[in-house]
Amino acid sequence: MNVTVAPGSGFCFGVKRALKIAFEAARKHDGQVATLGPIIHNPQVVAKLEEEGLSVVGSLDEIPRDGTLVVRSHGLPGEILERALERGMSIVDATCPFVKQAQDAAARLEREGYRIVIVGERDHPEVLSVTGNLREHATVVEGPESVEPLGVRGKVGVVCQTTQPMEHLRAVVDALLPAVRELRVFNTVCAATLERQENALELAARVDIMLVVGGKNSANTRRLWELCKEAGSDAYHIETADELEPAWFEGKREVGVVGGASTPHWIVDEIVSRVESM
Description:
This protein is of the alpha/beta class. The chain has helices at residues 13-28, 43-51, 78-86, 97-111, 125-131, 147-150, 166-176, 191-204, 219-230, 265-276; strands at 2-5, 33-36, 54-57, 68-71, 90-93, 115-119, 139-141, 155-160, 182-185, 209-213, 235-238, 254-259. It folds into 3 domains: 2-10 and 192-276, 4-hydroxy-3-methylbut-2-enyl diphosphate reductase, catalytic domain (Cobalt-precorrin-4 Transmethylase, domain 1, 3-Layer(aba) Sandwich); 13-95, 3-Layer(aba) Sandwich (Rossmann fold); 98-189, 4-hydroxy-3-methylbut-2-enyl diphosphate reductase, catalytic domain (Cobalt-precorrin-4 Transmethylase, domain 1, 3-Layer(aba) Sandwich), CATH 3.40.1010.20. It has 10 helices and 12 strands. Strands 1-12-10-11 form a 4-stranded parallel beta sheet, with helices on both faces.
């Protein structure tokens, strides 16, 4: 079998930056160093960070007052950061710069009097970090079908979860436009996400099977798998080489592999080696 890895697979800029900051914090700071939730959505990388001394907690109460909070790549709501400072914790900010742009865009729109609509997954930590940095309630929509029942009117400002497909943003904007008096849109979709999706689709069109590699809790990886499936590809979402099933490859000659934005290259390489050895 021939195995081809899609260009741009593996860690994106924001993830590389967050991990560098996290590893340095674990080495430099005394006491407990922790993230509130996993710093990225990849269990294997999170496990390696824990070996280096960076723990994952579910609440600030699990971090002592002399501890250090590393802000995950998805960002955190402002009220949580304020509570951490009030408790006397040190804060190391590893928020992805593109997520920070989405936070700033939403806050700017709110200051200028717009009702905020966020295109994304309601419970995703990135979306929660954007809504958690606003004074008023924001409306989160996953697609155009959610717009009409909300009765959104007046001045509306739109931002997007950075890992959403561009077509989701376009569809929501098209649905909003006839219903509102004024519409302002900040395109906060990450360019690296778009490029990765395009590369995955291009590769899926010319191979017999696609392996989409990344955490099962990773939104961008899951979306890569969905796009490949929607395009008619025989696609599988896996985290590690141990999930590979020989039956998937019967009668297949060309195999495509794409890694999500939080997928390390060593996992992709391991999967490629395992497939080539079949």
